[in-house]
Amino acid sequence: MKIIAFSSLLKNIRTLSTLMILVFCSGVTVADEIKVALRAHSGVEEGIKQWQATIDHLNTKIPEHHFTLHPFESISGLNQAISRKEYDFCINNPSSFIKHKIDYGITPLATLVNKRQGKGYTRFGSVIFTRADRTDINSLKDLKNKSFIAVEELAFGGWRVAWDELLKYNINPFKDFKSMIFAGGMQQNVVFSVRDGSADAGSVRTDMLERLNASGKINIQDFKVIGQKQTKEFPFLHSTDLYPEWVFSTARPVSSELKTQVVSTLFSIKNNSNAALTGKYIGWISPLDYSPVENLLKRLHVGPYHIATMSSFERLKSQYALPILFLSLAFIFLTILILFILRQNNRIRQAKKLLQQEIVSRQELERQLMHIQKMESLGQLTGGIAHDFNNMLASMLGYTELSIGLEIARSDRKLQKYLNQVLNTGDRAKNLISQMLAFSRTEDPSNKTETLLMADIIEDARKLLRPLLPSTISFQIKDNTEKLYVKVNRVMLDQVLMNICLNAKDAMKGSIGTGTITISTNIQSYDLTQCNSCHQNISGTYVVIEIKDNGTGMDSDCQKRLFEPFFTTKGVGKGTGMGLSMVHGIIHEHSGHLIVESEINSGTTIKILLPEASGIHKTPQTSILKPSSNISDEETKHILIVDDEISITTFLSDLLKRHHYKITTFNSSQQALDFFNTHHNEIDLVITDQMMPNLSGTEMSAKMIKTKKNISIVMCTGFSDQVTESNMKELGISAYIEKPIETDKLLNTISSLV
Question: 0.70 exceeded by the pTM?
Answer without folding.
Answer: no
